Amino acid sequence: MTVLKTSMRNFLAHKGRMALSAVAVLLSVAFVCGTLVFTDTMGTTFDKLFAATSSDVTVSSKDAGDGGETTAGNGKPPVIPAAVVDQVRGAQGVKSAEGAVFSTAVTVVDGDKDSLSPTSGGPTIVGSWNANDARTMEITDGAAPEGADQIMVDADTADKHDLVLGDEIGVISALGTHTAKISGIADFTVTNPGAAIFFLDTATAQRTLVGESGVYTNVNVTAAAGVSDDQLKRNVLTALGTDYKVQTAKESADANKEGVGDFMDVLKYAMLGFAGIAFLVGIFLIINTFSMLVAQRTREIGLMRAIGSSRRQVNRSVLIEALLLGVVGSVLGVGAGIGLAVGLMKLMGAIGMELSTSDLTVAWTTPALGLLLGVVVTVLAAYLPARRAGKISPMAALRDAGTPADGRTGRLRAAIGLVLTGGGAAALYLAGAAEKATDGSMWLGLGIVLTLIGFVVVGPVLASGVVRVLGAVLLRAFGPVGRMAERNALRNPRRTGATGAALMIGLALVACLSVVGSSMVASATEELDKVVGTDFIVQDDNGMDLTPEAVAAIRATEGLDRVTEYKWTKADFTTPDGKTSDDTAITATDPTYAVDMRMETVEGKLADAFRPDSMSVHEDYAKDHGITLGSTVDVAFEGGGTGTLTVRAVTSSEGAIDAGAMYTSIDTLARYVPADKMPLTMMVLASAEDGQKDAAYAALKQSMDRFPQFEVRDQTDYKEALKDQIGQLLNMIYGLLALAIVVAILGVVNTLALSVVERTREIGLMRAIGLSRRQLRRMIRMESVVIALFGALLGLGLGLGWGATAQQLLALEGLKVLDIPWPTIAGVFVGSAFVGLFAALVPAFRAGRMNVLNAIATE
After folding, report:
1. What are the tens digits of pLDDT across the range 338-363?
2. CA–CA distance from 653 to each of 185, 656, 685, 809, 813 (Å)?
3. Which sign, positive or negative, has the C-alpha torsion 846, 849, 852, 853?
4. Which of 298, 586, 677, 797 has the most CB atoms around its CB within 10 Å?
5. Lowest mean per-residue pLDDT among 170-174, 437-441, 511-515, 577-581
6. What pLDDT sits at residue 612?
C-alpha cells in the first residue's frame, strides 16, 4: 500500500512531465482502435447490404463469378435460359421465383458524356428492376422504368451528380450505347457503401446487357412460410440438377463479402502496421521520460532506500507509475480512436464511399486490445529505467551521485549494437546478391530488422561522434552558445541516442520508400523508351475492357497509320514434356504488335509468332518444359476448342513490360474460339502517320469523347500517369508515417522539457553570470536541432541502404534503374531541422521565463 501511495504521489507530482508520454500512448492506441472500429464498421455496412439484397436462394450460371461479374472476357455476364424460372417455381417450398438481369461490365455517362461511376472504386451496376430490389429500395421520386426510354438511378448517385427526373444518361456495354431518361430515383433502406446503381425494365436490360431476350443472369427465389433457406436450396437442386449454381442468402452474402474482405484485410493490417511503428517510436519517448524522472529523483530514491525500501519496492514504484500512465493514455486513446474512426468515415464519404455512423461498430475486443497494448507497451518501456532506479545505492543517492555509470554496460551495448548492425548489413548484401526476388525478400526483411535494432542499440555511441561533427559544421559559428548546445547534447549520449532513434525510424521508412518509388518510375520510364514503339495507348484505368464500339471508333480515326488490339484469355497448355499447365495466360494481338512493342527475343522473331497457328513462349517457360523453336504446344482455349500451335519465338523473361507473356495472333485465337466467346480488347496501341502525330492525337481524343471511361495517352502522358499513381501511393504512406513522426517530435519536446527541469540550477547560474534569455532560448533550440539532425542522418542513411537493396530485388523483376531522389532526401533533412526548432519552442520559452534566484536556489 505504501508503494502504491508513493507511486500515486509521484505520478501526480509529475503529471505535467508525464503528459507528452501519455499523448504518445494516446495517439498509438487511438490509431489501433480507430483502425479496428473503422474496418469493423465497414464490415457491418457490407454485411447489412449483402444480407438485405440477397434473396432466400439465388440461381445463376456456373460460369458466373461470386459477384456476378463477367468471367468469359466477352463483356457480357453469363446467362441462364428463362425456362429455369418455371422449373424453379415448380420446386417444393417455393413461394415465388423471378428472373433478373444485371451486369457490372458497364459504364454510365450523363448527357455531357461525363462518367457517373463512383470515384471511390465502387462498382457500377446496371440491372432490371425486380421485386428483390423493391425489398431493399424505396422509390422516393418518379416511378420505376417501364420502357426502353426510361431508367431509374439510386439516390446517392443522383445527389452526387445533380441528376433529376428527365435527365438523359447513357449505358455503355459491350453491345453498344443505350440512352434513356431518368424516370425515377430510389433510395436504399440500408447504407449503400458507394456503388452506382441503375435500373432498366427487364426486356431493355436483356437487350442492352446480354444482347438477347429469354435469358437471365440469375433467378431470385423466395421461400414459402416455414421453409428454411437450406431446405429450399435442396429442393431447387432437386428440380434443376447440378447444372447451375444455387446459393442460399448466407452463401451469396459470404461470397460477396469475400472480395470486399480481402480489401478490408489489406487496409486493416496496413494501418495496424503503421500503428505498430508509432508504438515503437513511443517506446523511446517513454524510456527517456522515466530515465530522466528517475535521474531527477535520485536523492528521493536514496532516502527511500535509507529508511528501508528494497530494490524491488523502488522498482515496483516506478512500474506502478508506468502502469498509471499506460492506463490513462490508453483509456483516452480508446475514446480518441472512436473519434478517429468517425473522422475516417467522413473522409471516405468525401471521396465517394458512404459509411453511416448508425452502423458504427465497437466490438468489446477493440477497447480491450487498446488497453492491453497501451499498458503492456508502457510498462515494458519503463522496465529498464525502473531496474536502474532499483540499483541506486542509498549513499550514492544521498550525495546526489546520480544513477550508476557502468562503463562495462556501455561497452557491451556498443558491441551488441555493432554485431547486430554487421549482421543486418550482411543480410542486406545477401538480399542484393540473390538470384530470385522471393529469396532476396527474406534477407531484405531480416536485414531491415537487424540494422534497425543495431542502430538503436549503438545509437549512444554514434551520438558522441555524429553530434560533434554536426556541432563543428553548424554550431561553432554561434560561439559559446553553440558550444554549450553541443555539450548539452553530448552530456547524456544514451538520452540523445534514444531521442534521435525515435525520429530515425520514421525517416528511414520515408527514405526507403522514396528510393523505391523513384526507382520504379525511372525504371518504367526507361523501359517504355526502350520497348514501346507506338505513339498512343488507349485503355481503361480500372481494368475494364474496351467495347467493340470504342475499338471501331479508334480504327475510324483519321491520321492513324496502324492500330493494334491487345486481348488476353486463359488456356490449358500441353507441352512437349507431356505436362499440362492449367489456366495459363495467353495474349492475342495483331501482327503489328511486333512493331509497336520491341520485345526482346532470345530465339526467333516475335513477328513470326503471329503467323497462322503459331505462338511465342517466354524463356523460363521454354527451359522448364524443354521447348525450342519448332516445338508444338496443344492449347485448349477457354470457351473454345484446342489447337496445336508451333513455337516461332522465345522471348526474354525479363523486363517490366509484359514480362512472361506468351503471344499468338487474334486470327489464330478466332479460329478456335467462337465469336460470341471471344475476349474483348484490353488495350489498343495506335501510331500516327508520318508527320501527323499532333493531328492524330487530337483526332483520337475527339473520337473517344463519347467513351469517357477510356483514356487516350501518348508516351509522355503515360509516364506522367505512372508517376502520379506511384506518387499518390507514396503520399498515402507518408501520411500514415506522419503519426510516427509526430510521436517522435513529442519525444524531442519531452526530452528537452525534462532536460530544462533537470538543469534548472545550471540555467540559473548561467543567467547569473550574464547569459541573456535570448541566448538561453537559442542554446536550447540549437540543442534540439542537433538532436533532430542526428536522428535524420541515421534514418536517411538506413533508408537509403534499405531502398538501394530493395531496388536490387526489383531489378530481378525488370526494374533495373536505381534512382535516388536527392531533392526529397535533402528536403527531409532540412525539414528535420525545422522539426527540431518547432520541438524546442515550448521548452525554450519556459527556460527563458525562469526566475534566476529561484533557479539558483533549486536543489
Report:
1. 998 898 888 877 777 777 788 888 98
2. 52, 10, 22, 15, 9
3. negative
4. 586
5. 437-441
6. 94
